[in-house]
Amino acid sequence: MKQAWWRAALGALSALVLLWGVMQVYASGQTLLAVVLLACSALALWTYTSPRTGALRYVLPGIATALLFVIFPMVYTLSLGFTNYSMRNLLDFERAREVLLEERLVLQGTERSFSLHPVGAQVQIRLAATGTEPALESPPLTLSAASPQRVAMRPTASSAPTPALPLSEVVGHLDALRPLTLTTPSNQTLSLIKLREFAQTQSLYQAEPDGALKDALTGTRYAPNPDTGFFTSAEGERLQPGYRVNVGWAHYARLVQDERFREPFFSVFVWTVVFSGLTVVFATALGLFLAVLLNWEPLEAKGLYRVVLFLPYAVPGFISILIFKGLFNQNLGEINLILNALFGIKPAWFSDPLLAKTMLLIVNVWLGFPYMMVLCTGLIKAIPSDLYEASAVAGAGPWMNFHRITLPLILKPLTPLLISAFAFNFNNFVLISLLTNGRPDQLDATTPAGTTDILVSYTWRIAFQDSGQQFGLASAISTVIFLLVAAVTLVQMKFTKINDAPAR
Q: Residues 6 or more apart from 358 whose CB is under 8 A from it?
């Protein structure tokens, strides 16, 4: 009975803590994440308080981890692909409207420089005289940024009570000075506009009953446009910042229908497939050749050769890539120095599209062949030696052994790994980013696309290097990449299932 009471109390306390956390996440504006956390919390409470859950108690942490770190990012990315989310459209409608209404216009001729003077533990504000207004001072104040204050100014005494604070100390009081409103004897209301000035301001935009905004200076009316996510005038002028709106399938339609966008996207997609496929083919061919060669019995010091050939895989990839970037330098790189000494040529590896792609393949094959060599070596070691002995008795040579024994027996277990390697290189962002950064650029493209960009680096450039930083469009492309990689995975699973089927 006592144990059940403690279990109920602990469950109730846990429920309150989890519910408080969910409410905090929801209050910060992360509705989707709050829903996921609420679902995980409810499932966890039911699992660990119900006597009927059984084995679910042990697998729940894995399920919750998958929901939070796999399913939620996927769903969130997918949802962004249906919005106009970008650097110009970061806020929701209400917050964007508040930001625009908070913009203030300084009335010319009302600027007043000020100084701060300590009075005991308090501070006095003194406004300098202008051509029409006398010098003013405030009563001693306790500056606090907790809430806005309205301070009535009065004519100054003959001299300041203490010397003015230096600028370095004035900066420390800025947070407390910003919410102050100074009222002069002539009924002017002044607020802080600069480090050393107060002035009279008015709202730049006025709210209209229908939700539109009106420019206080020009009278131009800006109505919210639900299609673009901007407050827009009749002439098409937009106010910044914009706000997020749903655009439906617009980003996906742009990938297919907009010729200016379709051409660079299609070329990047084709190069991604070619880059991934050729890398796997060349790296596997080289790794398999070296594995077969190192499996040759008369070869001496095979262990030393394996260690040396495995070094490219042991060295961190980003270091090797940066070293190759220096080696391929057109003017100072060792590769061009050797080519110039032998043949009198200095290839432009980074400015010629074909040479840049060739360079990427060379470096990626160099980074990938040790892994394939190790895989193939292990698979070859698993082949029974009796097969080679029988082949030798039949008079078969090395090529016949490779063609009839080695290749057929290692190809079946190697195929899923080759497909996985293809999927990995499909998203090999590090190599592209560090070696070429997608360059040379496609000069006729309307989006930041390079001739050596693959889809993942192309997406990154759209999301973080384009002037508009189009996160929604980048999310749509990320979704397409996910579908393509998922398709490759399904092909792999289906192919593996076919190969594992028993022969009839």
A: none
Q: Which residues of 199-208 are buried (b: 16+ CB within 10 A; e: fewer)?
A: bbbeebbeee
The amino acid sitting at 247 is: V
User: From start to end of 277-365, where are the E strands?
Assistant: none
Nearest Cα residue to 244 out of 459, 29, 465: 29
Do 268 and 193 share a structural domain?
A: no
Convert the pLDDT of each residue in 127-152 to its tens digit. Answer: 988 877 888 989 888 887 666 788 89
User: Do residues 65 and 144 share a domain?
Assistant: no
Q: Which of 203, 230, 265 delimits the end of a domain?
A: 203
Print the domain residue range for 112: 104-203
Burial zone of 459 (CB within 10 Å; 0-12 exposed, 13-18 middle, 19+ buried): buried
DSSP conformation class of 68:
I
Run of H or E including 317: helix 317-327
Q: Write the burial class of residue 127 (CB in 10 Å: 0-12 exposed, 13-18 middle, 19+ buried).
A: buried
- Cα–Cα distance between 193 and 171 in angstroms, integer? 13
Q: What is the 3-state secondary structure (H, E, C) of 264-284?
A: HHHHHHHHHHHHHHHHHHHHH
How many domains does the structure of the chain reveal? 3
332 with 453, same domain: the answer is: yes
Q: What is the CATH number of the domain that holds 387?
A: 1.10.3720.10
CATH code for the domain in which residue 181 is found: 2.40.430.10
323 inside domain: yes
Tallying the residues shown for the chain, one arrives at: 504
pLDDT mean values, one per 10 residues, the chain (504 residues): 62 79 81 80 80 78 81 87 90 90 87 90 88 86 76 82 87 88 89 90 89 89 92 92 91 82 84 92 92 81 80 84 91 90 90 93 92 89 81 77 83 85 88 90 77 89 76 88 81 64 47
* 464: helix, strand or coil: helix
pTM: 0.72
